[in-house]
Write a structure and sequence with these properties.
Length: 360
């Protein structure tokens, strides 16, 4: 009876709309309340360098930048709201200032656009910086000669589309680099650090870095590439052979040895041709000369001439190879010394400051 009464009471409470607590999932997958921050871009006021630009044109270009970024799947903080929270945003340039903008607005990224004006020539540069540390992670650049504000607006639309694509992909994971080369097996360096050989496919840190491809016997190629989180950057290289390169140092000694042997052979046959000896083949001579010798058997002029020319050429080539190898080794030593000097830490003391400078 007690169980039946409890069951009836529970049904009655449910019918009266009394809230009943739902059971928690058995797998313990309840929300923790600590989700990753959504992408949010704060746009700084447009910076104009060079000739003056009317305020109406500034507003028009700023509006096109904001509209272009608002088409993305992320939140946009327009310049007027940024200035309201960070009054010095218009003059912000360095990474520290950009990071402070991100902190003040709660933005994950900061966008800064600069237009250089020279009469009717325009240069545009729009950068995308990390809102945490202010480091530039992407940029779009373009220029226009003898243009109006409408054409500059088109450049801003294109730049906004480029940054919008990169921002939309930020939540997809780290940047990925895919490198192909012909021939394969070339070494892949990123900012001087060896990453592997082609074909290469691996994650890289976001930001602007120098990609270098090198292979023995081929011309080294360098490119400056901007890597963005979630974007797969594909690079292809057609390597060209190094023209007219002399052989390695050991071949120089081989060439000199062959040249000396050739010159020695020429000297021996010169002696034989000039020796006053009655040479005969098998005790007979087809035709004796007035001196009773056999010139048809021991005619050494052709042998002497050929071996002398070959010996001189091989000796000259060997000396050239050795000299060229010495210069290459000297350059390598100088480059290594210079790199070591760049890596050396320098200690400095200034007015109210202590600094350590070096390249790591």
């Amino acid at each position: 009876m007690l169980r039946l009464a409890a069951l009836v009471a529970a049904i009655g409470m449910g019918g009266l709309g009394v809230p009943v607590l739902a059971a928690q999932p058995a797998d313990g997958s309840e929300s923790t309340g600590k989700e990753a921050p959504a992408t949010k871009a704060a746009i700084l006021p447009l910076v104009v360098e060079g000739d003056e630009m009317p305020e109406a044109d500034r507003q028009q270009l700023t509006g096109r930048l904001v509209e272009g970024l608002e088409r993305g799947d992320f939140e946009v903080v327009p310049p007027d709201q940024v200035v309201a929270k960070a009054p010095g945003a218009a003059s912000c340039q360095d990474a520290g200032c950009l990071a402070s903008i991100g902190d003040a607005t709660g933005a994950t990224h900061v966008v800064r656009a600069v237009v250089k004006v020279d009469d009717r020539d325009y240069e545009l540069r729009v950068i995308l910086a990390n809102g945490e540390d202010g480091v530039e992670i992407a940029a779009a650049e373009d220029s226009c000669q003898i243009c109006g504000v409408a054409e500059v607006g088109d450049l801003i639309d294109a730049a906004a589309a480029t940054l919008r694509t990169k921002l939309d992909a930020l939540s997809q994971g780290p940047a990925t680099l895919v490198v192909a080369s012909n021939p394969v097996g070339a070494r892949v360096y990123i900012d001087g650090e060896l990453k592997g050989t082609t074909p290469f496919n691996g994650p890289v840190l976001p930001g602007k870095q120098v990609l270098r491809i090198s292979m023995d016997g081929f011309i080294t190629v360098e490119r400056e590439v901007t890597f963005v989180e979630g974007i797969e950057e594909q690079q292809s290289f057609e390597l060209e052979k190094v023209p007219s390169r002399l052989p390695a140092r050991p071949w120089g000694w081989v060439s000199i040895g062959g040249g000396i042997a050739g010159l020695g052979t020429a000297a021996v046959f010169t002696y034989l041709g000039q020796a006053e000896v009655n040479y005969r083949l098998g005790g007979s001579c087809p035709q004796e000369d007035p001196q009773g010798e056999c010139p048809e058997i021991w005619n050494t002029e052709a042998i002497v001439l050929g071996t002398a020319i070959a010996g001189a050429a091989l000796t000259t080539l060997g000396v050239a190879i050795l000299l060229n190898s010495s210069r290459r080794e000297k350059k390598k030593v100088e480059a290594s010394t210079e790199a070591t000097a760049r890596r050396r830490v320098r200690f400095g003391v200034g007015p109210g400051s202590v600094s350590l400078r070096g390249r790591f």
